[in-house]
Amino acid sequence: MTNSQRVIVNTTAQYARTIINVCLSLYSTRLILEALGQSDYGIYSVVAGVIAMLSFITNALVTTTQRFLSVHHGKNDPQKIHQIFGNSMLLHLIIGGGLAIVLCAMGPLIINHMLNIEAQRLVAAHWVYYAAVVMLCLSFITAPIRALFIARENIVYISIVDVLDGILKLLIAIVLTYITYDKLISYAGLMVGITLFNLLAFAVYAAYKFPEFHCPRVKEWNKELIKELSSFAGWTTYSAGCIIVRNQGIAIVLNWFYGTIVNSAYGIAQQVLGAVQFVSMSIVNAINPQIMKAEGGNNRERMVMLSEYMSKYSFLLLALVAVPIIAEMDTLLQWWLSEVPEHTSMFCRLMLVASLCDQLSVGLTSANQAIGNIKKYTLIFYTTKLLVIVAGWICLYKGLPIASIMWCYVAIELLTSLMRMPLMKWIAGIEMWPFCKHVFGRIILPLIAMIAVCYIMTNYMQYNYRVLLTLGASAVVGIVMIWLTALDKKEKELFKQSIKGIIRK
Fold it and tell me: Do residues 56 and 244 touch, judged by C-beta distance below 8 A?
């Protein structure tokens, strides 16, 4: 299978997973919200979110492990690959165990004094907290195994496991309605079970499929390799940490000024964002290993080209879904939830706009990771993202509307997205103008066309089930405009040949 065919297959698998999981997730959330109630759902969002703030370490280590594995796959060095995986596993176990001890010790302080939770629900909040700690530890063990699948470009199996994960969460939502014991505690315990299932699903298959997979031994410890992994992971941890701190920092600021009900709306919006973002992340995950392998094979020109493709395709794919959803958000939320918490629509719309801003140049982050010179980029780029917490707190403290914090979010996401280009010019010598031409110049017309269609549909059409017409019309117009204006001759021909090759196989 050629590289282009592999990207298409992996992207298709992720799209199938996304569509299925979005449907499962939306219905599951409705059932869970009904079963728990707005207050308990808000408690779960904010308490589990505190632990989720630390999942950035897991995400960072996944990125680190996948980067080093992919680069050495590009160099065709199986011995080094085996060594990297073993040392990465050891690093995950050490960090995960250490975090678990610290978090368990800090539990009472966080729950009783740092969060605004009703006294009668403190016991349940403690159970949720410790369940989240267990899930975090299990995810640490799963992380390097998942990274191995990404580096191997076996996205199909990842998609299968993720779909099973979505099915299990739906079953939990259904079962939750019949549980007589404390539903919040029960929900937290069942979520631990799903996390354990994911670990076993990846570990068993990896043991069968990949020769580099093995249980690590202490004697494998390689000081120099650990130092190299830790250095890269340290800055990747900082970047992922900034994203999590930003997201949960906004949640904590909202909780401070408005209480758990608003956290319920914010939690739902984050779920919507996560579901929709899978659309763009599918192409990011499919192309990212190719970027790493190109740099590992000393093919800088191909690496830059792939980063341009990633930015363009991820933005357009996200826009295909996000633009009509933004336009019909109120109707979709009414269909989805029996009771929509106040401000949910506003949170959802502005989060999606912010995500579109970020996707404008997302490929340059992968390019920077492939090059490996991440210190300067990470420190400047991700620190800037944290400014939304300060700006949002000031806005709410001054009495501005609750939407002001989200507009700060959008503005800073646009700023940081534009910052990527001069940063990569400074760090790696990647020219700004070709990137603007190949990315920004190609996305404008499809975006305008989709916005225009959605505006006409929502302002001049009043049919029943109009939302379906809006989604369909926007998708058709968007796809046609992407084919006509966003893809050049070479891309069209490559796409046709890859599809023909996949069909023949």
Answer: yes
User: 400-411 pLDDT, tens per residue?
Assistant: 888 899 999 999
Q: What's CA 222's distance to the chain center, in Å?
A: 31
pTM for the model stands at 0.74
Q: What is the token pair recorded at 265?
A: 């709306």
Burial class (CB in 10 A: 0-12, 13-18, 19+), 328: buried
pLDDT tens per residue across span 244-280:
788 888 888 888 887 777 888 888 888 888 878 877 7
Helix, strand counts (H, E) of the chain: 19, 0
> How far apart are the C-alpha atoms of 357 and 427, rounded to whole Å?
22
Place of tokens 């729950």: 111
In the 8-state DSSP scheme, what is residue 340?
Answer: P
For 104-188, where are the E strands, in sequence order? Answer: none
Q: Tell me the one-letter amino acid at 292.
A: M
DSSP assignment of 241-293 equals HHHHHHHHHHHHHHHHHH-HHHHHHHHHHHHHHHHHHHHHHHHHHHHHHHHHH
The sign of the CA dihedral 10, 16, 20, 23 is positive
Cα–Cα distances in angstroms (integers) from residue 262 to residues 39, 342, 350, in the given order: 9, 7, 15
Task: Decide if 55 contacts 134 (C-beta within 8 A).
Answer: no
How far apart (Å, rounded) are the C-alpha atoms in residues 352 and 91? 35
Structure-token pair, residue 42: 């808000």
Helices (H), 297-362: 300-327, 329-336, 344-359
Q: How many residues does the chain have?
A: 505
Residue found by looking up tokens 């009900």 in the block: 261
CA dist 191 → 86, 213, 265 (Å): 28, 27, 21
6 closest CA partner among 491, 489, 504, 501:
501
For 104-130, how does the pLDDT look when each residue is reduced to its tens digit (9 = 90+)? 888 888 777 777 777 787 888 888 888
Measured CA to CA, the distance from residue 108 to residue 130 in angstroms comes to 10
Contact 88, 268 (CB under 8 A): no
DSSP letter for 30, please. Answer: H
Q: What is the rounded distance in angstroms from the CA atom of residue 475 to the CA atom of residue 300? A: 34
Task: Please name the amino acid found at residue 367.
Answer: A
| CA pair distance 70, 81, nearest whole angstrom | 9
Q: Which positions ≥6 away from 40 have C-beta within 8 Å? A: 121, 124, 183, 184
Calculate ∠ Cα 180-267-334, nearest 5°: 85
- Measured CA distances, 322 to 19, 148, 389 (Å): 14, 31, 24
Q: Where are the beta strands (DSSP E) in 38-82?
A: none
Beta-carbon contacts of residue 266 (< 8 Å; ≥ 6 apart):
45, 250, 251, 254, 343, 347
10 Cβ partners below 8 Å, 6+ apart? 153, 155, 156, 282, 285, 286
Helix (H) or strand (E) holding 364: helix 363-371
